[in-house]
Specification:
Elements lengths: L6 H20 L11 E6 L14 H11 L3 E6 L4 E6 L5 H8 L4 E6 L32 H7 L2 E11 L22 E2 L50 H10 L14 E8 L8 H11 L16 E4 L9 H12 L3 E5 L17 E6 L17 E4 L17 E3 L8 E3 L11 H18 L5 H10 L46 H8 L7 E2 L8 E5 L11 E9 L6 E2 L5 E5 L6 E9 L4 E8 L4 E3 L47 H15 L15
Parallel strand pairs: 5-7, 5-8, 6-7, 8-9, 9-10, 10-11
Antiparallel strand pairs: 1-3, 1-4, 2-3, 12-13, 14-15, 15-18, 16-19, 17-18, 19-20, 20-21
Length: about 675
C-alpha cells in the first residue's frame, strides 16, 4: 500500500531527486547523505494516532504524510506508539527533519542496517590482544570497532622513519606489487671519518631504503662509533614498526595492522648503533615533501610521520625548527616516549608532536616506559604478565630471522623471539589510529588530530587489574638521574590524556570542524559579519545546522543566529564573545568562539576548514587490505550494503522506484554508517 499526500508531496520528492542529480553534476562532495528508506517514529503519548496496534493505519499514514509533505507507507508496529514507516525514496536529513518537526511526533530515527563487526582473518590476529576491547585487557585499543567505521584509505601515506624495511616481507611488500611499501629513501650518511660502518650498506644516501641489518659484535665495539652500544643481533626495527602500523590485513596470513589500507613510506635514518640527528631531520623533512639538498623530491609525501626513536635530553632548536616545518605541511608527527623509566626522550618532548608512553595490558604504566607532562597519550607497549613462562602480552608483528643480514622473513611469534616490547611499538599503534582518522576526515590539521586523539582516549584505571597496584606515577623532572621503572597508576600529568582508543578517536574525527571568518570591517558600534560557511564535515557527511550565541546570551544580539552567516554589532568598549556550533547530518557537532573588540576580532578557529579534499580511494585492487590485497572502494567504511525494504509496491511507487534506480545508477548511494636513537 502507498499513500500519496498531495501533488505537493510528489513535487517535493521530485525536487529532492533532481537536487541530488544537480549536486552530482556540479561534482560536489558535501551533500545530504542517504542511508535507508525506513524510519522509526515514536508518537507522543497523548496522541490518538496509532494508539492501538489493531487500529487501521492507512488513514493515519496518510494524515502524517499530508502534514509533512512526504510519501509514506506504514510497514509494521513496534508497540502502541512506536512504528516503522517507509518513505518512497532514500531518506535525507531534510526529510527526517520534516518528520521530526511534526507536532505529533516525539522522535524519528532512520531505521539503519547493522552488520557483524569486521574481523581480520590473519592467523596471528588471535594473539593480537591489543586490537580488541576486553575487560581483562583495559589497554586494548578497540580497533575492531573502529574498523566498522573505516578500514583506512589507500591514499593515506604514513612515513616510518627508522632502520629501513625488508621489502620482500610477504605481509608488507612493495606497493607496486600490491603491498603496502613505497620505495622511500635512505638518509644514513657517511661516518665522520668518511666510511660507511654505521650505514652498513657500503654507501651513503640513496634511493634504497631496505634494511641491511644493524647488528653489533664485540669487535665492532673497538670502533669509537659503537663502543657504547650493546652487542646484539639485528633488530629489524623498521620492519617490526611497519607491521604494527600496517601489515597487510585480511590476507589470511601473518598479522593484522592497525590500518587495513594505506601506504607506508620507509625512510631509513638509523644504522648500526642509531643515527645522527641531521639524518633524522633530513628524513623528516623529505617525508613531508620538503626538498632536501642533493636528494630527489619525494613524489608521495606523508600525512603522518612515525618516529620510534629518541635519546635523553631537552628538545633541541634543530628539532624545533624541523617540527615546525613539517607540521606547517599539515603532517602529524608521532614519537615514542622512550624506555628508560625516566623523563620523556627527545624529540618526543618537543612541542606539537604526539608523544606516546607505554602501558601494560592492565592500563597501568609499564615499568620501562618514560613518562612526564610532555606525553600526549599512552598505548600498549607490551608486557609479559606476572605468572612467568611465555610472554603473555607481546605485541606480535612482522620481523626477520636473520641474526645479522636478512634471512627468512617471519613474525615475532615464529622466529624464536619470545617477546616484542617497547614504546617503539606504542607509537605506530597511535600512528595507525591517526591514519584511520585521516581516512574519515582529511581536513583535520595536526593540532586537531592531536586534540581528537586525546578526546577519544579512555580514562586510566585507578588500580591495576592484575596486580592491584594503586600507587600513582610521579615522574622526575628533565635532567634527573632517577628512574621509575616499576608499574604505577597513570595520571594525566604523567601519561597523557588517557589510553589510546581507536574507536573513540575515529568517532572524534567524524565530528565536523567549525570555522569562523570575519568578512566585514570591524568598527565600533557597526555590524560585523561572521561567516561559518567554510566549516567542514567529515568525509561523506554534510553540515545541516548552525547556531550562533553570545556568551553570556544577554551580552549581545546576534542576527541570523541559525544561519551560516550572522551579524553582530561591535562593542564601543570592552569585548563580546560569540559561540558557533555546527552540526552535521549525523547529529555530530563542533564549536568555536570568536571575541569581537571595538576594532578587531580574535579567534582560534580556522577561517576555512575545507582546505583539503577527502582522500579518494583507488578503484579496483589497491595496496594493503582485504583478501589477496584488495581494498574496499569506500574512503571511510567497508563497502556499502543495500538498505532494507518492506511492503508491496504500488503502481505509483514503481514509477518512483524507476526514478530512484536511475539516481542509484548515477552513484548517489552511500555506505552504511556503521626507541636513544633506537629505543626498543
Amino acid at each position: 500500500m502507498m499513500y500519496v499526500s498531495s501533488f505537493k508531496a510528489w513535487m517535493g520528492v521530485v525536487s529532492i531527486v533532481l537536487g541530488l542529480v544537480a549536486v552530482e553534476a556540479r561534482g560536489q562532495t558535501q551533500t545530504e547523505e542517504i542511508y535507508s528508506d525506513r524510519v522509526i517514529v515514536k508518537l507522543r503519548s497523548d496522541n490518538a494516532a496509532f494508539a492501538k496496534p489493531s487500529m487501521t493505519t492507512s488513514a493515519d499514514a496518510r494524515a502524517l504524510a499530508d502534514r509533512v509533505g512526504l510519501m509514506m507507507t506504514h510497514t509494521h508496529a513496534l508497540g502502541s506508539d512506536l512504528h516503522v514507516l517507509r518513505i518512497a525514496a532514500p531518506i535525507t536529513a531534510h526529510m527526517l527533519a520534516q518528520i521530526r518537526h511534526d507536532g505529533r511526533v516525539e522522535f524519528a530515527e532512520i531505521d539503519r542496517r547493522r552488520f557483524a563487526h569486521t574481523l581480520a582473518d590473519d592467523p596471528g590476529f588471535a594473539n593480537q590482544w591489543y586490537l580488541r576491547a576486553d575487560a581483562l585487557t583495559p589497554a586494548a585499543i578497540n580497533a575492531v570497532s573502529a574498523w566498522d567505521a573505516t578500514l583506512g584509505n589507500s591514499n593515506t601515506v604514513v612515513a616510518v622513519i627508522d632502520t629501513g624495511v625488508l621489502f620482500d616481507h610477504p605481509d608488507l611488500g612493495r606497493a607496486s606489487a600490491g603491498g603496502r611499501l613505497l620505495d622511500g629513501y635512505d638518509f644514513v650518511s657517511a661516518d665522520s671519518s668518511g666510511t660507511f660502518a654505521a650505514a652498513n650498506d657500503g654507501n651513503g644516501r640513496d634511493a634504497d631504503a631496505s634494511d641491511p641489518g644493524d647488528w653489533i659484535t664485540q669487535s665492532d665495539k673497538q670502533n669509537a662509533l659503537f663502543k657504547n652500544c650493546d652487542v646484539a643481533n639485528s633488530s629489524w626495527h623498521g620492519t617490526r614498526v611497519s607491521g604494527i602500523l600496517g601489515a597487510i590485513t585480511g590476507n589470511a596470513q601473518g598479522v593484522a595492522g592497525i590500518t587495513w589500507s594505506g601506504l607506508i613510506l620507509p625512510v631509513r635514518v638509523l644504522g648500526k648503533c642509531g643515527g645522527y640527528d641531521s639524518d633524522i631531520i633530513a628524513g623528516m623533512q623529505w617525508a613531508a615533501g620538503i626538498d632536501v639538498p642533493g636528494v630527489p623530491s619525494n613524489p608521495t609525501p606523508a600525512v603522518i610521520e612515525n618516529l620510534s626513536l629518541g635519546a635523553s635530553g631537552a628538545c633541541s632548536q634543530s628539532y624545533r625548527t624541523a617540527i615546525g616545518q613539517v607540521t606547517a605541511r599539515n603532517v602529524l608527527i608521532v614519537v615514542s616516549a622512550g624506555n628508560e623509566g625516566g623523563p620523556v626522550d627527545s624529540p618526543a618532548n618537543c612541542a606539537s608532536v604526539v608523544a606516546v608512553a607505554g602501558v601494560r595490558h592492565a592500563g597501568t604504566k609499564v615499568g620501562y616506559s618514560n613518562l612526564g607532562p610532555e606525553v600526549t597519550l599512552s598505548a600498549p607497549a607490551g608486557n609479559c604478565g606476572t605468572s612467568g613462562g611465555a610472554c603473555a602480552y607481546s605485541l606480535d608483528t612482522t620481523t626477520n630471522a636473520g641474526a645479522t643480514s636478512p634471512d627468512p622473513n617471519g613474525y615475532t611469534y615464529t622466529n624464536l623471539i619470545s617477546q616484542n616490547l617497547g614504546t617503539s611499538f606504542s607509537a605506530p599503534i597511535v600512528s595507525g589510529i591517526a591514519a584511520l582518522m585521516h581516512a574519515v576526515n582529511a581536513n583535520l590539521t595536526p593540532a586537531q588530530l592531536l586534540a581528537r586523539l586525546q578526546e577519544g582516549a579512555k580514562p586510566f584505571p585507578t588500580q591495576s587489574a592484575d596486580t592491584g597496584v594503586t600507587q600513582q606515577c610521579a615522574p622526575e623532572p628533565q635532567g634527573s638521574t632517577n628512574v621509575q621503572n616499576t608499574e604505577c597508576v597513570c595520571t594525566t600529568s604523567t601519561c597523557g590524556a588517557g589510553l589510546a582508543n581507536a574507536a573513540g578517536a575515529v568517532a572524534a574525527a567524524l565530528r565536523p570542524i567549525a570555522s569562523i571568518a570575519v568578512t566585514s570591517a570591524v568598527v565600533a558600534g557597526k555590524d560585523v559579519t561572521l561567516d561559518a560557511s567554510h566549516s567542514a564535515a567529515a568525509c561523506g557527511r554534510s553540515i545541516v545546522a548552525y547556531q550562533w550565541q553570545a556568551v553570556p546570551a544577554t551580552s549581545a544580539t546576534v542576527s541570523n543566529d541559525t544561519q551560516a552567516i550572522a551579524t553582530v554589532t561591535a562593542p564601543t568598549s570592552g569585548a563580546i564573545t560569540l559561540h558557533i556550533t555546527v552540526t552535521d547530518d549525523h547529529g555530530a557537532s563542533d564549536s568555536a568562539d570568536i571575541t569581537v573588540f571595538p576594532t578587531f576580532t580574535s579567534t582560534q578557529a580556522p577561517a576555512d576548514a575545507r582546505s583539503v579534499s577527502c582522500p579518494v580511494a583507488s578503484t579496483g585492487s589497491s595496496p594493503g587490505s582485504g583478501t589477496n590485497g584488495t581494498s574496499p572502494t569506500s574512503t571511510s567504511a567497508p563497502a556499502a550494503r543495500s538498505g532494507g525494504g518492506g511492503g508491496a509496491l504500488g503502481g505509483d511507487e514503481l514509477v518512483y522506484l524507476l526514478v530512484l534506480l536511475w539516481v542509484k545508477g548515477k552513484k548517489r548511494l552511500f555506505a552504511n554508517e556503521r626507541g636513544d636513537s633506537l629505543t626498543l
